[in-house]
Amino acid sequence: MEEKKNLEQLTAEISNKLYDSINLLEILEEIAECNRKEGFLVSSLLKNINQAFNDIETCRQMISVPD
């Protein structure tokens, strides 16, 4: 049976996945640098994922309980 996760754990996992995706897209962006269309697609994805990462980090700060 799958363990239930709390909101803090879930947002941490989402952040990690987004951060990994950002790193992979940065590598792909370097590879696609010479092709305008591919470069545009990768740059657009990178921008969207960066924004999603920033948004989820804001959510994590809002829901975290101070020690």
Notes on the protein architecture:
The chain is mostly helical. It has one domain (11-62). It has two helices and no strands. The chain has helices at 7-31, 36-63. Helix 1 runs antiparallel to helix 2. The longest helix is centred in the C-terminal third of the chain and has 28 residues, at 36-63. The chain is elongated, with a radius of gyration of 15 Å. The N and C termini lie far apart (31 Å). The mean pLDDT is 84.
Mean pLDDT: 84
Taking the alpha carbons of the first and last residues, their distance comes to 31 Å
The helix-strand sequence is HH
* Shape call: elongated
Taking pLDDT < 50 over at least 5 consecutive residues as the criterion, the unreliable ranges are none
Largest sheet: none
The oligomeric state is single chain
- The whole-angstrom Rg is 15 Å
Number of domains: 1
Strand content: under 5%
Number of strands: 0
Number of helices: 2
Structural class: mainly alpha
Helix content bin: over 70%
Note the main attributes of this structure.
67 residues; mainly alpha; 2 helices; 0% strand
Quick recap:
The protein is mainly α and 67 residues long. Helix content is 79%, strand content 0%.
